[in-house]
Specification:
Layout lengths: L1 E6 L2 E4 L4 E9 L1 E12 L6 E6 L5 E3 L7 E6 L4 E6 L8 E11 L5 E5 L3 E6 L1
Parallel strand pairs: 2-11
Antiparallel strand pairs: 1-3, 3-8, 4-5, 4-9, 5-6, 7-8, 9-10, 9-11
Length: 121
């Protein structure tokens, strides 16, 4: 069994900051990439940022310069530091990990349950 548990969401004023965490637990042998996605009602889930096991990062244009993704491989945890938050950042944020389970042969993607981020204007 593998679980991704997000935390750190909440309500913040525009211009403020939040830090999201995503902890992966269970029978995990190796994690390839980890990432954050977000979704608002009526729209598709969209990429926010990803990070590989080697530390290479990728960001959506809308968050470049404001958000920073990082990870602690020893803890199987990814973080998303969100600064200068804007009303448009309001969404449910989901963590995604591509990982190999103990005893498995292939990498599969797993998703967390999501955490709400609300930015008041």
């Amino acid at each position: 069994q593998v679980q991704l548990v997000e935390s750190g969401g909440g309500l913040v004023q525009a211009g403020g900051s939040l830090r999201l965490s995503c902890a992966a637990s269970g029978s995990i042998r190796s994690i390839n990439s980890m990432g954050w996605y977000r979704q608002v009602p009526g729209k598709q889930r969209a990429l926010v940022a990803t990070i590989t096991s080697g530390g290479s990062t990728n960001y959506a244009d809308s968050v470049k310069g404001r958000f920073t993704i990082s990870r602690d491989n020893a803890k199987n945890t990814a973080y998303l530091q969100m600064n200068s938050l804007e009303f448009e950042d309001t969404a449910v944020y989901y963590c995604r990990a591509v990982l190999l389970r103990t005893g498995g042969m292939f990498y599969y993607e797993y998703w967390g349950q999501g955490t709400q981020v609300t930015v008041s204007s």
